[in-house]
Specification:
Blueprint lengths: L1 E4 L5 E5 L2 E5 L20 E3 L5 H4 L9 E4 L1 H11 L4 E3 L5 E4 L2 E7 L5 E3 L3 E3 L4 E6 L13 E4 L8 H10 L3 E5 L8 H11 L3 E5 L12 H10 L4 E2 L6 E4 L8
Parallel strand pairs: 3-4, 4-5, 5-6, 12-13, 13-14, 14-15
Antiparallel strand pairs: 1-2, 1-16, 2-3, 7-8, 8-11, 9-10, 11-12
Helix pairs in contact: 3-4, 4-5
Protein name: UPF0173 metal-dependent hydrolase EI982_06980
Family: Belongs to the UPF0173 family.
GO molecular function: hydrolase activity
Length: 244
């Protein structure tokens, strides 16, 4: 599995021969790319409807858009998306070589269009290369994109022990989401081996010293490796899975 961070909450994920783009928003200071520079993904996953997560969804008309039914309906109406998968919390859908499980995020989800529009419940995704089951598969690998969220006990009680992500991208910019301290607790609760900070240094309210997140993770006693990526940088996990 290859993970590429394009700044903010925008991730390009490759699972075998399937590519997934999460929360496309390229008007951020961590990327030098325009949407046209990005290889066309097979799927676009949307965590919620705020502009800094859906701004560039229309740039990928051939991709299948995945999200809540309310959000995929809006994308179809406003951007003419032909192929959509409306799903909801707790569900898993097969997207090519990937299995995508939706879990809730603690956030808001009103859309500031010409009228106030609800995009349903905010979400995060666990993207894996095998279907999630209660039978532990040592050869499986899963990546958790938490979306915009505060710290929530579901990370400790459900996502970590049952969905078993190996790596997580967590918002740490504070103000609108978790900050470094709560993000570090999330990494510990999830019991992941690898953690990637996101959703920081995009706008003045979420400018932070990201090294604080590294120190906070260490302070929890977590063994997770913290990977602070530069914009447009990739990290690859190869079978048998270990550090990429």
């Amino acid at each position: 599995m290859e993970l590429t961070w394009h700044g903010h909450s925008t991730w390009y994920v490759t699972v075998d021969d399937t590519s997934l783009l999460i929360d496309p928003f390229f008007d951020n200071p961590h990327t030098s790319l325009d949407p046209a520079d990005v290889p066309a993904p097979d799927y676009v996953l949307l965590t919620h409807g705020h502009a800094d997560h859906v701004a560039d969804v229309g740039a990928f008309p051939d991709a299948t858009v995945v999200g809540t039914p309310e959000l995929t309906g809006w994308v179809a109406d406003e951007h003419g998306a032909g192929d959509t998968i409306g799903m909801n919390l707790g569900g898993t859908v097969e997207c090519g070589d990937a299995y995508v499980t939706m879990h809730r995020a603690d956030h808001t989800n009103g859309m500031m269009t010409d009228y106030e529009y609800s995009a349903g419940t905010p979400a995060g995704y666990v993207v894996g290369d095998t279907e999630p089951t209660q039978e532990t598969d040592e050869d499986a690998f899963a990546f958790y994109h938490a979306g915009d969220t505060g710290l929530m006990t579901e990370m400790r009680d459900v996502i970590g022990p049952f969905l078993e992500p190996d790596a997580a991208a967590l918002p740490v910019g504070d103000h609108f989401t978790m900050g470094p301290a709560q993000g570090a607790i999330a990494a510990d609760w999830l019991d992941v081996d690898h953690v990637f900070p996101m959703h920081y240094d995009t706008f003045p309210p979420i400018e932070i010293d990201v090294s604080r997140f590294e120190r906070e993770v260490a302070a929890t006693g977590s063994d997770a490796d913290v990977h602070v990526l530069d914009g447009d940088e990739s990290h690859t996990f190869e079978r048998p899975y270990g550090d990429g």
